[in-house]
Amino acid sequence: MRVIAGVAKGRRLKSPAGLDTRPLTGRAKEALFSSLANVTADARVLDLYAGTGSIGLEALSRGAASCVFVERDRTSMQALQANVEAVGLGGEAVLRDVDRFLGADEKSYDLVFVDPPYALALASVEAVLDRLVPRLATGAIVVLHRRARGETPRVPAMLALTDRRRYGDSELWRYERLNETQEET
Q1: Is 48 in contact with 69 (CB distance < 8 Å)?
Q2: Are strands 136-147 and 170-177 parallel, antiparallel or unpaired?
Q3: What's the CA gap between 118 and 6, in Å, rounded?
Q4: How far is 27 from 17, CA to CA, in rounded Å?
């Protein structure tokens, strides 16, 4: 696993042993970031269920202003911290459960990646999306990575589903934060 583009292109990333982290394939990551080219530069990024940090680090490599990585697993956190240090583009790694983080965090974000464990129930994923909405700048993009199961998460108020793509056994949902006027229509 490595950073595929930007100033840290080619930088190898550490990953803990086992199957608990499931990074996006290179093809899916390249397609995702190609679609986000006009959003990534100078973005304030949040990487939830960050694992090794490969998605947030890719965003930093492509010009994001900052990234907060949230991960609760200590083994993944060790790899994440090593990767943040090795890439050298900054970023804040937070060892905390996503629900607790969202309950305490008051920052605003432009780009958010939500990559929960495949086993996390759909209702729990929807609850995370709901709690995330107040942290989003108008026009912010949220990307959800899930196993392709034929299920479709409910779209929270103030978000619009703008894209859905399948890559092998994974699906990416892309949402955009609406402004107050758009929600009323």
Answers
A1: no
A2: antiparallel
A3: 29
A4: 22
Token pair of 23 as six digits: 């990074």
Q: Which pair of structure tokens corresponds to residue 144?
A: 């959800």
C-alpha of 140 from chain center: 12
Tokens of 135: 């942290």
Q: Indicate the pTM of the whole model.
A: 0.91
Confidence of residue 158 (pLDDT cuts 50, 70, 90): very high
Cβ neighbours of residue 82 closer than 8 Å, sequence gap 6 or more: 14
- Least confident residue range of 26-35, 53-62, 69-78: 26-35
53, 93 Cβ separation under 8 angstroms = yes
CB 52 within 8 A of CB 91: no
Q: Where are the domains of the chain?
A: 26-110+125-148+164-184
Q: Which of 4, 76, 31 is nearest to 172 (CA)?
A: 31
SS3 46: strand
Question: What is the mean pLDDT of the segment spanning 156-182?
Answer: 89
- CATH classification of 26-110+125-148+164-184, choosing from 3.40.50.150, 3.30.1330.10, 3.30.2350.10, 3.40.309.10? 3.40.50.150
Structure tokens that stand for 27 in this block: 């093809």
Each residue of 76-121: pLDDT tens digit?
999 999 999 999 999 999 999 999 999 998 999 999 999 999 889 9
